[in-house]
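Budget justification, computational time. The allocation requested in the original proposal was used primarily to generate structure tokens for proteins on the priority list. As evidence of use, we reproduce two of the resulting records. The first is shown immediately below.
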Amino acid sequence: MNKVYNSEEEFLKDYNPDDFKKLSMTVDILIFSVSNEEVENYRKTDKKKMSILLVKRDNYPFKDKWCLPGGFIGIDEELDEAPKRILKRETNIDDIYLEQLYTFGSVNRDPRMRVVSTSFMALIDKNRLKENLKKSASWFDITLYEEKNNIVDIVLDNGIETINFKIEKILREKTTDRYSFKVLNNDSIAFDHPLVILSGLERLKNKLEYTDIVFNMMPELFTLGELQQVYEVILGKKLLDPAFRRIIANKVEKTKMMKTGEGHRPSYLFRYKK
């Protein structure tokens, strides 16, 4: 399993599907971040950008393609421990809270064997990480466009490379508003990870309504304007101030401290109400 191949042809020549008769289990990890995008005019508030952490594969299949951090679960390893170990190995990120997202088990999702993957997700502030990323890992800013006929166009950009893929959302249950996803166009992301990414984005939007996950990436003190920007960039839409205040009314508490300078009117600082 750990043999290094020099070409796709060498890999396929050596590969024998009869060697793999049992189901294999992996984990894939989505790490989302919302952080400031600096603007030149000091009187304007820094914009928020959403990004995702990807790693570049160094072996076949999908050599040199980008993918989510992931790997096989050890035979004696607990499911919840595997993503922590793999995330550290693949990216050097350690000690963050991860929660299960979905299980992906399409028969042909991995060309090597039958693989079922449990995905995990986290929302963090990448600017507060103490660890230095490994060279094979990179943050990609996310731009998401939902077109007509439920076609979602996603663009990922790390300042050097731009990745684009399109996914069709197919309504499965009208009463519960549940969708299945079908990849229409993808040439840069390995495996079925475009589906995993969109599933994570959809779940993250939903979790904003009934959990406090957003505060995992907020600093201890923040203005309501900063918090509102984070909500808006995740939801992909502007929120009216009264509606936003109702959403966070019981989640934050006002302090006596204020944020000043930077060419803006002083604003009260708030903290997460635990």
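The second record produced under the same allocation is shown here.
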Amino acid sequence: MYETLKKYCQQFVHLSESELQLIDKFFETKTVNKKEFLLKENTICNFLAFIEKGSIRFFHTKDGIEKTCDLAFENAWVTDFQSFSNGTVCKMNLQALEESQLFFITKPNLLKLYESCPKYETFGRLMAEKVAQRATGIAMSLSADKPEERFENLIDSQPDLFQRIPQKYIANFLGISPESLSRIRNRIFHKQKS
């Protein structure tokens, strides 16, 4: 049932068959419909979720305006780490942009999993490091790269992006207007054709 997650875990830590079976015990599957919220700001996040299929948008609201911080796809972990780790109210919203299949674990079950098999603690640390590296990469790109470079990097990492995600969220994530995104997209596609 959790074969995708088991294969993913095996890439980072060697787990025996009995250790892999712990995933069946502590995780649950969850389907989130398009536009449905997995997490809303001003609540406490008590879960981690692995995206088997679909996409999740991370955003917060400032002065009534939504600010997209990240777009997560298959084989990514989603949570509000600050809220999850500290038990504080979250500032982030997690919303499905298409119907999404998730493997979901609550914080109490995660702690039981760590207790049952310390290798999962190692795996958890490695995943937290990957998330931190991604967040650093996004922050550096926003501060140093031109919008066109950010767009090209995003398309390289997710070629089917425009078939899956509304353009307004892509533009918001890149820190530009939808009109600027259209101009950049047209320039790049014209360059590729010539």
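A brief technical remark on that second record: The longest helix spans residues 119-144.
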